[in-house]
Design brief:
Two copies of one chain form a homodimer.
Chain A: H1 4-17, H2 25-32, H3 36-48, E1 52-53, E2 61-62, H4 64-86, H5 95-102, H6 108-117, E3 143-144, E4 153-159, H7 164-172, E5 180-186, E6 193-197, E7 200-205, H8 207-210, E8 213-217
Antiparallel strand pairs in A: 1-2, 3-8, 4-5, 4-8, 5-6, 6-7
The structure holds a DNA duplex (30 and 30 nucleotides).
Chain lengths: ~220, ~220
DNA sequence: GTAATAACTTAGCCTCATCTAACAATATAA
DNA sequence: TTATATTGTTAGATGAGGCTAAGTTATTAC
């Protein structure tokens, strides 16, 4: 098994690699708030364990083994978040910190039980997919709200870059997963969007926000 | 806050000190499965932090501060065990290992929620008292089954030295908390007891077992 | 009351995960 | 295309929490 620390590096690599597939030592260092030389030596250690591909002065890529391990940790994290929200009554903005700790528990039985109690969910409370027991998952191809056109009606299916503050902001605007949104117009100037949903007929969402909301077209 | 390791030392001291109030370095070493020199240096560290009283070549005693800290960890452990049994359907023999890990989580909110969901319980699934929010608790004075006399009828209220195997043994004999037992006789020779409960009219319990069962007289 | 045993302590070493300081390579901009 | 800035690497230190080997103090047995 891997150490608490190694697990955090794997998870960070997994999350950062989503777009490019490779991650610079610098990105990792910033994301983990750990100095570069430390990250550098840890990356070498992960390479020794065949969890990442690494060459001097080159970005890092997870190996298949590394992807699997990372996927399994993310699985535990997301199952936990779902459990905290659905079975314990936490808000979606409260669960990240706690799941961050619980994901490291060594008890397959515990996570089996959670999975079962939740009815084998496929997404977490923020709409992110939960990897399966082999560590694999697919992001069904959702669009960013910011890529949609006026006149379209869409359903909010996931939230990305989920920070505390952002989720609280969504709460305050009554923006929840599953919500139907109609796009009324897009402001040329700053990319902000005017949308309607529920009883709100003209809410404005900045580009910063609409880029973080994933939707399915209806 | 204290490290994971320090928390384990505090918890061990708390558990071992129950009878004598003081604990030898040797006992601690055996209980934690950590070599004496390591324990020795850790004890000094705890003394620096005013968590234990310590003099060279003398046993160790928790300070009031240390007792409080330890009590709060035990509280988290026992609340967790109760949660695992009552809300997640685990058996009382399965929860120790998991609680051992969860007790170290840093999230007051998480344990508040558990406490609330359980209706502020005062004992864990094995009948041990759950310390309050100041780390204090009282072992209501229960008697060992082994100290009872033939003819008495008692209620099983707690189990001590709870290992996996022992709890499984109790399961197999259908010995659960709350059970009424009548003591029929005690064997002079080896201290074993013949008791009746439920539909069983003459079950034999060895001294090893009856010393680990706490009862209240009826 | 001494000798043997058990318990305790000290000294010194190890690994893990972190750091800083200094140097090397690559990328960017003039 | 050379100068500068950014990114990456190496070397060496640190603190936590372990270990073994060797010596010291208590305790137990005779």
């Amino acid at each position: 098994m891997h150490s608490y620390t190694e697990e955090n590096y794997l998870k960070a690599l997994f999350n950062l690699a989503n777009s490019k597939g490779e991650v610079s030592v610098n990105d990792l260092s910033k994301h983990l708030a750990i100095k570069m030389p430390t990250v550098n030596s840890m990356v070498k250690k992960l390479a020794d364990k065949k969890l990442v591909h690494y060459e001097l002065y080159r970005p890092v890529r997870l190996t298949d083994k590394g992807k699997k391990e990372a996927g399994l940790i993310i699985r535990k994290h997301r199952l936990t978040e779902m459990f905290l929200v659905q079975k314990m009554g936490f808000g979606w903005e409260e669960v990240h910190e706690i799941a961050e700790q619980i994901e490291h528990l060594q008890s397959p039985l515990f996570f089996e039980k959670i999975d079962e109690m939740l009815g084998y969910p496929t997404v977490d409370p923020h709409g992110s997919p939960i990897p399966d027991k082999t560590g694999k998952f697919d992001w069904t191809h959702y669009e960013k709200l910011s890529d949609c056109k006026p006149g379209e009606t869409v359903k909010l299916v996931a939230v990305i870059h989920t920070t505390d503050e952002f989720l609280k902001f969504l709460n305050s605007r009554e923006l929840y997963l599953g919500l139907k949104l109609k796009i009324k117009s897009v402001e040329r100037f700053d990319g902000s969007m005017i949308v309607s949903y529920n009883k709100k007929t003209a809410e404005s969402l900045s580009l910063t926000v609409s880029e973080r909301l994933l939707v399915a077209k209806l």
